[in-house]
């Protein structure tokens, strides 16, 4: 995976100049950036206001303020030829992500929240799109390539707080992580927890075991007096001790040469000092400087629920073989679906890495695509035993903008109710410009998700997510183009380049569900199920214009969906008799009965 490298060189002094160097494959550009006092003061004030709001909840700091801060950060270092190299890199990206590796020489600049960079021209935050940011550090220590994993992947779960801690939820963290690996790599990962340890017990634990991943959950803070971050460990005897950034990094690297990733799920574990080299002040940077390939940390305080969503989603993506930078992007997007999440939570995590494209779980074997399974049926049938189970159809549910935070619970219920589909929640960044709010003088209400804008970015989504079908759930209506005519009024549709990727509109569904006496989540499942069956070429089934209280009603008056929701049975004979797979029919009936 190619990266866009951006180096910011020089000391941060008002009315002087910094040097920015951009590199992408064979392209290079250098710009001198004048450090104007007015720009510096504006950025400093906005950064301080964001930190105060995150920590204290006041004064107000809304999304407009975040875009203003992000725009100033972007314009500060990405100008002139550097911007043109970035545009070249964007244009050369066929699909997937374009990581931005950011290296900052000045200590003050290193402490700014670059993860919120906002491109006014593209009207998007880089970290929410295809350009996730990874922070690098200047170090003379050579980058270490992780050795191949032999046997099980070993994960140390360091719990710095005791169960029952008033401010954190360590038991929830353990549950979320175990659930992820039980689903995807149950027999390939060994998790060893350590809780309530003294300093000596912690060191003995690291000496006695070799871990590929170290995961810390607990309290961390930045000490203004020492200008260093620290982790706090509460021992079982009621006492506690601190490990500063350098102390913890030294302890880890003395005993853990096989470590690929350190995940610091703790507040301010990535915060740096304005007076000291990040490798001395930031826990995350110190670990990378001493040889850890990648560290996930946070630059501000982070709510526990958002933190749990972040860690579980990152591990889920890594378990499927995704590069770390891709997993970080999915984790950021997952945070917005946490209960009571704030609009800025997604920018709190930071990634320090010597190689952001590292595959933490290279041993993970992707499942065979559905089309290949069909081709191998004759050979497999000879060795299949009577007790073997048919393969489930994997379906990724992606909430692109509908804010349907119920999806994890819905997936759990749907998977338990039947054995034909295997649902999972996934996240993909929505391309800039995919949603139209107006065209010319015409303003859309609600906005419209244009299929042609997601066609190429989402074309290979099933392969990237290791699934068979991808269902995008949107709060918008769905629009597109056919024979030069534009349409803006669809409720569901596949994209042109891949019929197994489709969008489902949630417009008005909450009200229809309430009228039918059904939960909103079940109504969404009703719509998704219809598209799933319709996308199966075997049945040659399509929507019909008449209202039959059927999965496949397609009427100009969408209110007619209420009839189908009230009935919640698939007994429309003309449609049902087209499906000859009894397992599928049983699954449809079970899902509609939820």
Describe this structure in words.
With 594 residues, the chain is of the alpha/beta class. The chain has three domains: 4-131, no CATH class; 153-353, Rossmann fold (3-Layer(aba) Sandwich), CATH 3.40.50; 392-592, 3-Layer(aba) Sandwich (Collagenase (Catalytic Domain)). The protein contains 21 helices and 25 strands. The strands form six sheets. A six-stranded mixed sheet has the order 9-8-10-14-15-16, sandwiched between helices. Strands 3-2-1-4-7 form a five-stranded mixed sheet. A hairpin with a 2-residue loop joins strand 2 (17-24) and strand 3 (27-34).
Short key terms for the protein model shown above:
594 residues, alpha/beta, Rossmann fold, Collagenase (Catalytic Domain), 3 domains, six-stranded mixed β-sheet, five-stranded mixed β-sheet, 25 strands
Largest sheet strand order: 9-8-10-14-15-16
> How much is the average pLDDT?
84
Please work out how many helical segments DSSP would assign: 21
Structural class: alpha/beta
**Major sheet attributes:** 6 strands, mixed
Uncertain regions spanning at least 5 consecutive residues: 363-388
> Rg from C-alpha positions?
25 Å
The residue fraction in helices comes out at 25-40%
N- to C-terminal distance:
43 Å
CATH class designation of the largest domain: Alpha Beta
Percentage of residues in DSSP E strands: 15-25%
